[in-house]
Amino acid sequence: MTDSSAEQALPREPQGSKAPLFWPLLFWCVGLYFGRSLPANGSLLLGAGSGLTLLAIFLPKLRLWLILFAFMLAGSVRISTKSPSELILENTIAQRGNVVQAASFEVKREFSNNSYEIKLNKLAGAKLQTLMLLYHPEKLDVDSRYSAVLKVEQLKQDPILDFFPSRYKSRAMIDHALEKTDDSAHPNYIGKLRLWLDARIEKHAGDWAPIAKALLLSDQTAKGQYRDTLRRGGMLHLIVVSGLHVLFLYSLLMLLFRSFLPIKVAELLFIVVGLAFSALNYWSAPVTRAVIMLITVIVSRWFGRKLSSLQILSICLWIITLAAPQQLFDPGLQLSFLCMVIITIAVPQLQLQRLKRVRANLFQKAITAFANYLLLNLMVSLAILPLTLYHFGSGSLNGVAGNLLGVPLMAIILPLSILMLVGSPSSFITKAFVSSYQLAVWLFERWMILVAKLPFHLDDFWLDLLPAIGVTLFLLPFYLWIKKPKKPVFSLYIPMWILALVMIILPPFFAVDKTGIWVFSCGTADCSLIITPDKHSILVDTGQGSKMWDAKGSDAHSSWAARKLIPWLKKQKIKRIDSLILTHTDADHSGGVPALASSLPIGRLIITDETYSSELWTHWQSQGFFSDSEILLITDTLSIQQGKTRLKFLHPDKDYVGARENNRSIVFRLDVKGKSYLFTGDIEARDERWLVSRYPDEIDTDYLKVPHHGSKSSSTDEFIYHVSPIEAWISVGIPNRYKFPHSSTLQTLQKYDTEIRMTNDGTVYSRF
Fold it and tell me: Rounded to 5 degrees, what are φ and ψ at 555?
């Protein structure tokens, strides 16, 4: 095979759209995927890549393929390569479990749930430049430096609950000695600019500030405030800083600079401003992509080189994945590039005039341009639909209409967000800009609400990977035909459609039967799901609220259930909880109730009569929770048969008197498919003795949900002896302030040869 014949074996770019970097980039990205997904030896891969490169010199017939596979291996090496400081930190944590040392760090940004992104500058005197998560209940100032004794540990990903890979490898907590430090020796100019702009936007715009902050600083306030409405309207991209806003900024700045500067000087100034704008927005993937694309176009024009759209996109993705290979797996980057592929490569060219020779008047040109714009919007919305359904379980075509007015309004709001900050708040011109900005935002809000009411959207509709690829493959022939509307190439399109239908229709028939028990990783809290063989869903407790002590759900959207459990349930196509068992009212067991009751129908609620008479129950009733649910009160031992599944409630029975919530926890036995399981809530030693004395045979089970997160106040020797479990599950987050699980509990379980599984390593799943 000659070089030319090898080249012919690859799919060709259309004439005039050459992109020699595309195929090496494709193999590079495949290498990034496998390098991240499979265990790999970096040195071995590097050696293999070098060997392929040498072979390419001596084997000209295979040269092209050898080089492409060398790029694939290089991608695997790149994503597995770590700096010496990262390796030292990871190895130390792996050996010791955690590191407690004096550190200095800089707070980069704030997330919800008392968490921050920090850059660790020093740890035990060693210089580092490592990004990690910091959990701290008190307010920290973004873009400020601190010193403290930190406890650093590995950040574990839950393979079941965590949909997206984390960009962080470690997490930290402040052990003691927190102190804000003088950062004059290392001034953070971008951070100071961000703080100054934030304060100035607040001062000028007041209650109207969130949109301006979203557009200029990637502030999450507006996104959270309008999230559901924008998502349904397919317009969420308009207030998340993206390539569209960078293009607006470029047009505005070039219009300004070109009025008094030569073009190259104006473009150079834009490059500086564009990079600063990316830094202000935390180098988010869509912003960085757009800035790099514009810089590539500018530089290529300086050198007199004309690049195709695909070549520009390839260069851009090369730069991003070389600098930060994990970005390839970021949904924001994937959506951003997919949109750009459609916009730049598959632009429709409808010709509404019947005779091309007839000169169209201005009205006809406007109608044609409008039709092409609508079609492009539809093409982009359809193209990203499989991706959004796969990642987020939602998608909307309402944006086809929403963009008609939404994009022009954003083209007005963005420059007004900048212009209103220039002068004094009291000046007439500034007031005029602020008023114009407020009017534009008001119009955008009204339009957003109107578009969200259109019916062309999907919610809680998750696509698995193969069906998502199948839908994409099904749409591809239409894009090829619209780009060149000649006679359809059915000899190509029909096989593509057949393959697409196979990928869409067949996977559900081969789906794994997911029945069993999930004990979720929800910190030092409790939540378990039972799916019986007849598909009856039983949820036991709901995890913690937005704060550990908050069971009323003052911020239900920040609770663990809202962030983790409910999206996972919907992705698993569980649209109803048939039975919810609340063992007791402690917030680490019932804190997710507000989020759950607001999101999914609950057929039957099983609680004790003490819970039913509690203040918390009165609050839930006032909120309308469980108004459509059957209420089953446990006042004595009770057995429920559901098909071949039996639930027997053992505790508290009619003779038991308990003063504390933990002591009144519901204890029940589950029997299914010849296996037995015991769920124990937070019972303690006195309750265990009660169960041993009254129900010694019933508590003898194969699997034990260990009481009270492994506390030393539970799991007595006598109790574990009578249960004699094969396997024990402990719901716990490590570290925690209670030091759960206690060593005495672990020793007792080990004494009886019980296998121990803990949720701090990830959600525990047991198949029936």
Answer: -135, 75
d(CA 733, CA 523) in angstroms, rounded, equals 4
For residues 432 and 208, what is the distance between their CA atoms, to the nearest angstrom? 15
Beta-bridged to residue 648, according to DSSP, are: 639, 669
Q: Which residues pair with 117 in a beta bridge?
A: 109, 133
Architecture label for domain 516-766: 4-Layer Sandwich (3.60)
The ranges of the chain with pLDDT < 70 are: 1-18, 37-43, 112-113, 183-186, 348-360, 483-485, 546-557
Show Cβ contacts of residue 55 under 8 Å, excluding neighbours closer than 6 positions: 62, 66
Q: Which CATH number fits domain 84-187: 1.10.10, 2.40.50, 2.40.30, 2.60.40?
A: 2.40.50
pTM for the model? 0.84
Q: Are strands 170-180 and 145-154 parallel, antiparallel or unpaired?
A: antiparallel
Kind of pairing between the strands at 630-634 and 638-642 = unpaired
662: CB partners within 8 A, 6+ apart: 584, 586, 681, 682, 683, 684, 708
- In the sheet that holds 727-730, the strands lie side by side as 638-642, 645-651, 667-672, 675-679, 703-705, 727-730, 755-758
- Residues with Cβ < 8 Å from 745, sequence gap 6 or more? 706, 710, 711, 712, 714, 715, 730
User: What is d(CA 714, CA 720) in angstroms, rounded to the nearest whole number?
Assistant: 10
* pLDDT attached to residue 8: 40
DSSP secondary structure letters along 668-733: EEEEETTEEEEE-TT--HHHHHHHHHH-TTTT--SEEE-GGGG-TTS--HHHHHHH--SEEEE---
Question: Looking up tokens 């919007």, which residue turns up?
Answer: 377
Q: What's the one-letter identity of residue 225?
A: Q
User: What pairs with residue 516 in β-bridges?
Assistant: 531
Please identify which residue in the block is written with the tokens 């019972």: 683
End-to-end CA distance of the chain: give it in Å, rounded: 55
DSSP 607-661: EEHHHHTSHHHHHHHHTTTTTTSEEEEESS-EEEEETTEEEEEEES-TT---SST
